[in-house]
Amino acid sequence: MSRQERLSTLADFVVENGAVRVEDVVRELGISPATARRDLDALAEQQLIIRTRGGASANPSTGEVPLRYRTVRRPEQKAAIAKAAMALVGPGDVVGFNGGTTTTAAAHELAIKISRDPEFGRRPVTVVTNAVNIANDLTIRPQARVVVTGGVARTRSYELVGPLAGAILPSIRIDTLFLGVQALDPGSGIFTHTEDEAAINAALVRASRRTIVLADSSKLGASAFARICAPGDLHALITDSGADPADLDRLRAQGVQVIVA
Question: How many helices (H) and strands (E) would you count in the chain?
């Protein structure tokens, strides 16, 4: 496990438990007490946790763990989903990404694809996104034309949200939206954590001809606060082999194409 992976796991461990001691970290991660203390200090410097005598506690002001510490969760599944998604993108397409770890992986895969295929140099792909980290990664690619929504940046997801975020979307058309979500319930819809994220995601769905949800199997049947859209508003789901077959069948029955990466 790399240090970044270890920090990601440790950040989640502290947030999930509320408070931990150094010996808890040693037992959970299989590292030395000295390494545990250094890692806790590193997370405290980022204000992700609060260092306490002999351990650490969750920082109530940080909320969820920031994106940069969540990108290594279920990396193999996310990589497979990203590759399957970007196989659907061709030169000249207009594609959309919201923020999140899986869409970030997909955007990275797109960057590799367009750099290797000379046809994208002749017919660049247009990328519409409200995620500033995705925009930053793709702006340096001459094969991509990047359109960023307005809005206020959320520090934990790098997404632009608020009334300004959806202002340009009624004026444009996206061929395919790749949508990352926090929860997908085949019976009730697609959800994310906050109402402001749900609002911009819903606006992206309305601006798109085709919406493809990118969600690893842990998101199916999960719950989250704010509804983005109904299952029937999706055209496809790309997930991994760990998904419950019954959930996938319920989506297929509603006309959603299911791709298992």
Answer: 9, 15
